[in-house]
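Batch manifest, entry 17 of 40.
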Amino acid sequence: MLPSAIALLGGAMGRTLPSATQILQQNEEALSRFRRALRRSDQQAFDDLFTAAHQHIAEAAYASHLMPFEVSLLCMLLEEHKTVMRLQDEISSLKSKNA
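Output type: structure tokens
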């Protein structure tokens, strides 16, 4: 490819799509004003959701057919559901001890 064609296409040759990590970081940056508008306690919850999403970066790369933000939300939802399942198990365990 000619250098002028590379410049027209937006940069150097090589990777044409951003990585899953880059997409998640872009989503965080795009929502930074929203985050700042949240109460301090909500900011912590918001940060926790993105921390959860970061735990599934490798898996997110396999869902490239989805919209990038959908993948981030799915990763967050997965971690939230794991927490719910863990809490349900703890409640069941406590109920069986008290019964």
